[in-house]
Amino acid sequence: MKIHEYQAKAILAKYGVPVPRGRMALSVDEAKAIAVELGGRVVVKAQIHAGGRGKGGGVKLADNADAAAEAASKILGMTLITHQTGPEGRLVKCLLVEETLPIEKELYLGIVLDRAQGKLVMMASAAGGMDIEEVAAKTPELILKEAFDPGAGLMGWQARKLAFGIGIPAASVGAAVKTMQALAKAYLDTDGSLAEINPLVLTSDGRVVALDAKVTFDDNAMFRHKDLAELRDLNEEDPLEVEASKFGLNYIKLDGSVGCMVNGAGLAMATMDIIKYAGGSPANFLDVGGGANKEQIKNAFRILMDDKSVKAVLINIFGGILRCDTLAAGVVDASRELGMNLPLVIRMEGTNVQEGRLILKESGLNFTVADGMKDAAEKVVALAQ
């Protein structure tokens, strides 16, 4: 689950991460009032779930309150397009108005789970303010890493090693260590999946401050964090993904034309791969899960039908807990109830597969039954084209 920058900063501040003074604004008048409170020069920042906002015109400096109001009027309501939003962009509905700082140096801090090591890793770099993916690709030696145990947290010696490694002056190392350890504790306590400060700035008066912040959480842990779950902004998410989450469906929108309905994440990945191999492109990742029932199958169908880019649908099911006859009955009922008018290719194997195929055959509906994954992919790609 993603949250906005202003929300991430509020959480990190509770753990002792220094952040600039500022508040969220929903209108031009609010933005101006906050600028008056802060006094002096401020920065007005669009709040959307995407990076690259400055390059897209979503971050503006203002020398006074009137200039802040003018900047807010330009940013609020704009469709902000960045390298992370895609060409459709995101509508800006709220702002963060903050004080500016006397920046001496821009640095980077981030925490992720390194699946290769099976450990949490604190990353630090002297190349702050840049896209960390670009730094990793072109100059990976500039990214320092320290793996740490979640039970012990980030140790002081590890934080000091990183601080000196990215060139923080001795007088500011203590503040940097506290910031790194606070970031690590916030990540652990909130069941984070990513915590990133880019840039972490060193000011001319020796302070260490999180000028920007990005935090995402593990969706599966939100039952432990009701307060954090309330921070979810549904306006920033794909409407079909939001709808799918209501029915316990794992759905991710993609850019292709072949709709996929599969049970099991591994099979879903393999299905998308073989669609690409056959010359097509998947329109989504949709895992109905091993224990799906008729109602979930119907809702999955409805979500696929609501995606205007879908030209054909591939159902690829390995019958286990979800038996093939249960799937077939659900597909028939959903097709009749929803008036399914898209070409539909079905590949089934596993428990009660013969019974499932008989249900499809006797339904009188125009399904294409495939013999194996390769055959299914070739048929659905041909139908989508």
UniProtKB/TrEMBL annotation:
<dbReference type="GO" id="GO:0004775">
    <property type="term" value="F:succinate-CoA ligase (ADP-forming) activity"/>
</dbReference>
<dbReference type="Pfam" id="PF00549">
    <property type="entry name" value="Ligase_CoA"/>
</dbReference>
<feature type="domain" description="ATP-grasp">
    <location>
        <begin position="9"/>
        <end position="226"/>
    </location>
</feature>
<dbReference type="InterPro" id="IPR005811">
    <property type="entry name" value="SUCC_ACL_C"/>
</dbReference>
<feature type="binding site">
    <location>
        <begin position="52"/>
        <end position="54"/>
    </location>
    <ligand>
        <name>ATP</name>
    </ligand>
</feature>
<protein>
    <recommendedName>
        <fullName>Succinate--CoA ligase [ADP-forming] subunit beta</fullName>
        <ecNumber>6.2.1.5</ecNumber>
    </recommendedName>
</protein>
<feature type="binding site">
    <location>
        <position position="45"/>
    </location>
    <ligand>
        <name>ATP</name>
    </ligand>
</feature>
<dbReference type="InterPro" id="IPR013815">
    <property type="entry name" value="ATP_grasp_subdomain_1"/>
</dbReference>
<keyword id="KW-0479">Metal-binding</keyword>
<comment type="subunit">
    <text>Heterotetramer of two alpha and two beta subunits.</text>
</comment>
<comment type="similarity">
    <text>Belongs to the succinate/malate CoA ligase beta subunit family.</text>
</comment>
<keyword id="KW-0547">Nucleotide-binding</keyword>
<dbReference type="InterPro" id="IPR005809">
    <property type="entry name" value="Succ_CoA_ligase-like_bsu"/>
</dbReference>
<dbReference type="GO" id="GO:0005524">
    <property type="term" value="F:ATP binding"/>
</dbReference>
<dbReference type="GO" id="GO:0042709">
    <property type="term" value="C:succinate-CoA ligase complex"/>
</dbReference>
<dbReference type="GO" id="GO:0006099">
    <property type="term" value="P:tricarboxylic acid cycle"/>
</dbReference>
<keyword id="KW-0460">Magnesium</keyword>
<dbReference type="InterPro" id="IPR011761">
    <property type="entry name" value="ATP-grasp"/>
</dbReference>
<dbReference type="GO" id="GO:0005829">
    <property type="term" value="C:cytosol"/>
</dbReference>
<keyword id="KW-0436">Ligase</keyword>
<feature type="binding site">
    <location>
        <position position="263"/>
    </location>
    <ligand>
        <name>substrate</name>
    </ligand>
</feature>
<feature type="binding site">
    <location>
        <begin position="320"/>
        <end position="322"/>
    </location>
    <ligand>
        <name>substrate</name>
    </ligand>
</feature>
<feature type="binding site">
    <location>
        <position position="98"/>
    </location>
    <ligand>
        <name>ATP</name>
    </ligand>
</feature>
<feature type="binding site">
    <location>
        <position position="106"/>
    </location>
    <ligand>
        <name>ATP</name>
    </ligand>
</feature>
<dbReference type="InterPro" id="IPR016102">
    <property type="entry name" value="Succinyl-CoA_synth-like"/>
</dbReference>
<dbReference type="Pfam" id="PF08442">
    <property type="entry name" value="ATP-grasp_2"/>
</dbReference>
<dbReference type="InterPro" id="IPR017866">
    <property type="entry name" value="Succ-CoA_synthase_bsu_CS"/>
</dbReference>
<feature type="binding site">
    <location>
        <position position="198"/>
    </location>
    <ligand>
        <name>Mg(2+)</name>
    </ligand>
</feature>
<dbReference type="InterPro" id="IPR013650">
    <property type="entry name" value="ATP-grasp_succ-CoA_synth-type"/>
</dbReference>
<dbReference type="GO" id="GO:0000287">
    <property type="term" value="F:magnesium ion binding"/>
</dbReference>
<keyword id="KW-0067">ATP-binding</keyword>
<comment type="pathway">
    <text>Carbohydrate metabolism; tricarboxylic acid cycle; succinate from succinyl-CoA (ligase route): step 1/1.</text>
</comment>
<keyword id="KW-0816">Tricarboxylic acid cycle</keyword>
<dbReference type="GO" id="GO:0006104">
    <property type="term" value="P:succinyl-CoA metabolic process"/>
</dbReference>
<comment type="function">
    <text>Succinyl-CoA synthetase functions in the citric acid cycle (TCA), coupling the hydrolysis of succinyl-CoA to the synthesis of either ATP or GTP and thus represents the only step of substrate-level phosphorylation in the TCA. The beta subunit provides nucleotide specificity of the enzyme and binds the substrate succinate, while the binding sites for coenzyme A and phosphate are found in the alpha subunit.</text>
</comment>
<feature type="binding site">
    <location>
        <position position="101"/>
    </location>
    <ligand>
        <name>ATP</name>
    </ligand>
</feature>
<feature type="binding site">
    <location>
        <position position="212"/>
    </location>
    <ligand>
        <name>Mg(2+)</name>
    </ligand>
</feature>
